[in-house]
Every structure is written in C-alpha cells, then in structure tokens.
Amino acid sequence: MTTLLLHSPALFGALLFAALLLAVELGRRLGLRWAPRDGGSHGGTAALDSAVFALFGLLIAFTFSGAASRFDARRDLIVQEANAIGTAWLRVDLMPGADQPAMRDGFRHYVDSRLAAYRQVSDPVAFKAALDRSAALQNHIWKRAIAATQEAGAAPAIGTQLLPAINDMIDITTTRAMATQMHPPGIVYVLLLGLAFASALLAGYGVGEAHARHWLHSGIFAAILTVTLYVIVDFEHPRMGSMRVDNFDSLLVDVRKSMG
Fold it and tell me: How far are the Cα atoms of 88, 131, 137, 187 from residue 170, in angstroms, in the given order?
C-alpha cells in the first residue's frame, strides 16, 4: 500500500477509489437480493452497522492523529539538529587557534553530508551510504575535539562546553534516523483497508435495501475514504509523498551558509 502510494500516488488513489465504489455497488446488489420483500429493512442490523462505522472512525482518528504528531516531531527534530550544529560550531572558538581551521572544515563537510543524506531518503542504499559518511565525519570531529582537550594548556571549557555540544549534535542524528522508521505496524494499514471496504459494503447494502442507486452519494463516500487514507499514509512519509518537511531543511542550509 505505502510503496504504491509513494511511487505512484495517482494510481493508488484511482485504484482505491474504484475498489471502494465497487464495494458500494456490491453491497447494493446484495441489499437488493436479500432485502425483505415487503420493502422494510432487516431488524437489528442498524446497530451492527453503526458499530462497524464507529470502529472505523475511531481507527481513522487515532492513526490520523498519530501520523500528524510524527510529522510535527520530524520537523522539530530538524530544528533541534540545526540548533545543535550551530551551537557546536560556535564553541569551536574554544579550541586553540591552530586546531580550529581543520575542525571547521570537518563541520562544513559534516553539514553537507547531512543535507545530502535526507535528499536521498527515498533510495535506501544511497541513504544508508550517506548516513555512514556522516557517522565517519562525526567520529573525525569527536576525535579532534578529544585531542584538543589533551593538549598542554588547553582551556577547560573545551571539555565542559565543546564536547557536550558535539555529543548533542551526534545524538540527534540517531533520533532523526529512528524517526524516519517510526510508522504504525503493517497490520494497522491492513485493518484500515479492511474496515474501509466493510464500511463501503455496508453503506451500499443500506442503499440496496431502499431499492435505490445514488451515484453521487456513493462517489462522495468513496472519495472521502480515499483522500483520508491517502493523507494518513502521506503524513507518515514526509519526504516521499506530497506533504513534505523538506522546507525545514532550509534551517540546515542557513547553518551551512553561516560557516562560509
């Protein structure tokens, strides 16, 4: 489901919309076939239908809320990383003057690697390679900072201010990497689709019991479900779908520009 949506959202939407319409039509035909001959409705089924619709609505509410929260969290993490890098960059001033040029050059390469990594997030192989490069640069920066603390006459502030800042800069990368993999279990998407089709089938059945066909209502019903499911999945992949966090990368770009 997610693969099809991310690589061909138009096809995903069209297929889901058509499938839901078919489910409504199937339900209508079943309603026509099994509806009481006297034109009434099956007693007691309204409560069962309501239970299914309520469960579906509740699941949509929870998954939509969770997806939106994770979307906001991913944007906040970009801000946190930009702040962490900016703070560490400023504290490089605490190092001996002779050590600063190499350290600052390492920071420039590091920020470049971070920007490159998240531009390639849709390609797992390239994304991992870029993260590995960032990790190597982190190690390089950390070792230079440690070496600076061990030099004769080194300022104590290097160990108390620069090292914690670099440590924060490194830690946020792990948090961001894990955030890209935080999604609901696949069974949740299966349940969403299953309840969507069940709801469409029951809605169509109700129309069939009334011996009517309402294409406008059926189309709107299918369209609303399609858009809702699309948005939920799109929220979960903010660098692949239509709703993106890429514009927040401008914060890292600004940090890189400030480095010269």
Answer: 10, 12, 10, 33
pLDDT in tens, 68-86: 999 999 999 999 999 999 9
* Main-chain dihedrals φ then ψ at residue 36, nearest 5 degrees: -55, 140
The pLDDT tens digits for 115-137 are: 999 888 878 888 889 999 999 99
Tokens of 237: 């992949």
Q: Name the phi and psi angles at 240, rounded to 5.
A: -125, -30
- Give the closest residue to 221 by CA, choosing from 203, 202, 195, 198: 203
pTM of the predicted structure, to 2 decimals = 0.81
Which is nearest to 48 in space by CA: 210, 213, 206? 206
Residue of 238, 106, 80, 41 lying closest to 169 (CA atoms): 80
Which residue type, as a one-letter code, is found at position 27? Answer: G
